[in-house]
Amino acid sequence: MELTTSILLAAVGGLLLGFIIAKFLEKGKASKTIGNAKKEAASILKDAKREGEGIKKDKIYQAKEKFLELKAEHEKVIINKDKKIAEAEKRTRDKESQVSNELAKNKKQNEQLEHKLRQVDHKIEFYEKKHFELEKLHKNQVQQLEVISGLSAEDAKSQLLESLKETAKTDAMAFMQSTLEEAKLTAEQEAKKIIINTIQRIGTEEAVENCVSVFNLDSDDVKGRIIGREGRNIRALESATGVEIIVDDTPEAIILSCFDSVRREVARLSLHKLVTDGRIHPARIEEIVRKTEKQVEQEIIEVGKRTVIDLGIHGLHPELIRAVGRMKYRSSYGQNLLQHSREVAKLCGVMAAELGVNTKLAKRAGLLHDIGKVPNAEAEVETPHAILGMQWAEKFGEKPDVCNAIGAHHDEVEMKSLISPIVQVCDAISGARPGARRQVLDSYIQRLKDLEEIAFAFGGVQKAYAIQAGRELRVIVESEKVSDEKAAQLSFEISQKIQTDMTYPGQVKVTVIRETRSVNVAK
Length: 523
Fold this sequence. Notes:
- By secondary structure, the protein is mainly α.
- It is built from 14 helices and eight strands.
- It has helices at about 1-150, 155-200, 220-225, 230-240, 260-275, 280-310, 320-325, 335-355, 360-370, 385-395, 400-410, 420-430, 440-455, 485-500, and strands at about 210-215, 245, 255, 330, 335, 460-465, 470-475, 510-515.
- It has a three-stranded antiparallel sheet, covered by helices on one side. Strands 6-7-8 form a three-stranded mixed sheet, with helices on one face. Strands 4-5 form a two-stranded antiparallel ribbon.
- The chain is flat and about 185 Å long.
């Protein structure tokens, strides 16, 4: 135990000795490390001071360079400003010199003006003196003239004025007379020109109708079915339509006779439906006639609407549109009334445009001028169609100018607007157009024959043709008998002969043709 304790103590003592020795060794190393650290710190501080001095010197040098640059720029700016100031001063001095020169010129001009004003004042004074002397002399002369003539100045003036008035009146009357005569000649020429141009620009196809219509049949066997047992079918048809149905020996045809074209059309369409259907008896006839009447009435309205739209007329009353449509089934002297009214409307529009009148109102009046010819059954009275048409137009709200034109186109009321004579003239043009009406067709054909006969009456005429509806006569002469000079003379003589011997609307152009032909045959 003691040995163990001795060993433990010896071990502890050894450990303590070792520990103490280790501590001394570490302390020596630490002091050495501290010394080295101090040396390194001193070296770092020395290097840092040296680098700081270098950086300081660089910054100072850069600052000096920047300062020099700024100084140079500032000096440049100052130099530029000085230069601008010098230029501005120079401009100012130039302007001052110009102003001085202008002032000098103005001063000189003012002096010249003052001199001229003084001269003018002197002249005014001189002329005032002269005027005063002239007035004095004039008064003396007037007094002497009054003494010599025995009249005062006022009396002489009044006599002179009266004399001048009489002379002026005479001259004015002569001038007015010559002006009126010239205006009449010019107006007549212009009116002829407008009418001729209008006639040439407007034309519609002729339409000739009468009071009968022919209904064609496939075979004569149908006639018996149309007549019916003891004639009951034909009586029912005549009673329902108001049309006389003539069944004679005409092969495959039945004649429908009635003055009212609408009724004839209803009867024709009804017959067509009955024959096509095959069922012909009184009850069926009445049913078909009622349906056909509605169909024709609807067609009348459609025709009226299309006509109004084609002519560019707006706002027309439905009753007037229906009356326009009924014109399709009415003829006057063989001329279809609707075609005639359309033609008159177009003529009125063209003529109104030439004269500077309202074309829309003129076309409206032209279309409606004959509506009195197609009244309803209850309106058929013994009243002239122009007056009846005017009353209708007034009833359905047409303008006064249109109403007056309708009523005055046959001079039954007084014309109150320029549209009225236009409608009257255009109505006459449309009615007198060659081929328009049956009653003038024969005279028109005779006139064409007379034109050709007048040409044949002259020597050397080989052929003569009336063309362009009688507005041109083309004459072909024999080249052996008629020379070029004689052809021109012949044209003049024929035109004079036509002018003296014939009456015709418009003008007739005479063209004489002379040609020479040389023919050879190569064999």
